[in-house]
Amino acid sequence: HYRCRSAFKLLEIDDKLHILRPGLSVLDCGAAPGAWSQVAVERVNALGTDPAVPTGFVLGVDLLRISPLEGAVFLPEADIADPGTQRTIQNLLPAGKVDVILSDMAPNATGIKELDHQKLINLCLGLLNLSQIILKPKGTMLCKFWDGRESHLLQSRLKEQFQDVRTIKPQASRKDSAESYYLARLYKRK
Ligand code: SAM
C-alpha cells in the first residue's frame, strides 16, 4: 500500500534503529510522492489509531505536489531552502518544534556526479541550519547523501551538533547507487 518503494528503506532503518515512536513529531523533507510520510504516520500514530499510545504529527514538504494523506500535513510546491518555507514550517509545527527531521531529498540529477553530490550536500547543510531553529534537544536527523569528496564535511558538522552520528546503507538501496544516509541522534541543545 506504499506509494513508492523508498518506504522500505525507512522501514528497514527504523526497524533496526527505532527513530520513530508514537507521539513524536516529524518533518519529512522531500516528501513526494509520500511513502516515507506514510511510514511516519503509522509509526508515530499520527492518526491516533492506537488510543493507548500518544498521537504524533507528520509534516511533509516538497518542491512537487503531493496527493493528500490522512494523518499528514503537506506543504507542497515549497523549497526547503527558502526562508519563507522555513517560517511556514515553524508555524505549522506543534509549538514550532520537531523530534525528528527526515530527508530523502534529492536534487534533479545532472548526471555530473561531483555536481550532484555537492548539490545534495548543500541541501543537507541547509537543513542542518534549519534544525537549529526547529529541532528539539535530543532530537534526530536522518538525511540522504550521495557519497563524494564533501561527505566528511557534512559528517563533521553533524558530529558537532549531535552526540551520535552513524552512516547507514540500507539493503533496500540499490547496491550500485552511491546513496547513503547519515543518522544523527541526540541533538545537543545550544
Ligand atoms: N521519500 C519520498 C517518498 O518515500 O515518497 C521520496 C523522495 S524523492 C527520492 C526526492 C524528493 O526530494 C523529490 O520529490 C524532490 O522534489 C524533493 N526535493 C529536492 N529538492 C528539494 C528542495 N529543495 N525542497 C523540497 N523538496 C526537494
TrEMBL record:
Domain of life: Eukaryota
GO molecular function ontology, one term from the record: rRNA (uridine-2'-O-)-methyltransferase activity
UniProt keyword terms in alphabetical order: Methyltransferase, Mitochondrion, rRNA processing, S-adenosyl-L-methionine, Transferase, Transit peptide
Localization in the cell: Mitochondrion
Every Ribosomal RNA methyltransferase FtsJ domain range: 2-185
Coiled coil: none
Keyword rRNA processing: yes
GO (cellular component) term, any one: mitochondrial matrix
Major location category of this protein: mitochondrion
Full protein name: rRNA methyltransferase 2, mitochondrial
Source organism of this protein record: Athene cunicularia
